[in-house]
Amino acid sequence: MAKLVSKTYGEALFDLALEDGTLTTIIEEVNVVKEAMKKNPDLLKLLSHPKIKKEEKISVIENIFKGRVSDSLVGFLVIVVQKDRYDDLDGIFEYFVAKVREYKNIGVASITSAVELAEEQKKHIEQRLLQTTKYSQFELTFHVDKSLIGGLVIRIGDRVVDSSIKTKLQMLAKDLRNATV
């Protein structure tokens, strides 16, 4: 049910931003709202509190965000509060951001290496990913995991390319255990 709610509201926000031509602005504002909610967990508690009237919750939303984000996003947040869907805001925003990335053909990749990579290596990896995928741009996050020994593990969505020494050694050990002499 929560996924359906996230999809429905996320689509609505996406369509609104696309129609208004404010996709870039709205995605930045969504990040501002997400950050504000992350820094102030009491805001979500207030919105979830059953004894606080919707009118008061709407007033709080308007007081906090009006003038800081567009009227379109404030109006969207008001609708979310009116429909008691504030618990789904994270999912709605995640769906919206994913939809924008899809629309703009932006891939998201997580790269894990055994050592910290130099900027030149990071750029080379990005160029190779752009050449070998359908994406025109990437948002990359780099991580270090010394247990890999060497090589890389690249995750794009649900796809994983694991060329780490650790995995190759594990596969070799498995093959040796299964070998008959």
Distance between the termini: 55 Å
Number of domains: 2
In CATH terms, the superfamily of the largest domain is N-terminal domain of the delta subunit of the F1F0-ATP synthase
How would you sum up the global shape? elongated
Major sheet size, sense and barrel closure: 4 strands, mixed
> How many distinct beta strands?
4
Which value, in Å, is the CA radius of gyration? 22 Å
SSE layout:
Layout: H1 2-20, H2 23-39, H3 41-48, H4 54-65, H5 71-82, H6 89-104, E1 106-113, H7 119-132, E2 137-144, E3 152-156, E4 159-162, H8 165-178
Parallel strand pairs: 1-2
Antiparallel strand pairs: 1-3, 3-4
Structure overview:
The chain is an alpha+beta fold and 181 residues long. It has two domains: 2-102, Orthogonal Bundle (Peroxidase, domain 1); 105-178. The chain has helices spanning 2-20, 23-39, 41-48, 54-65, 71-82, 89-104, 119-132, 165-178; strands at residues 106-113, 137-144, 152-156, 159-162. It has a four-stranded mixed beta sheet. Helix 1 runs antiparallel to helix 5 (71-82).
Summary keywords:
single chain; 181 residues; alpha+beta; four-stranded mixed beta sheet
Short précis:
With 181 residues, this protein is an alpha+beta fold. Helix content is 62%, strand content 14%.
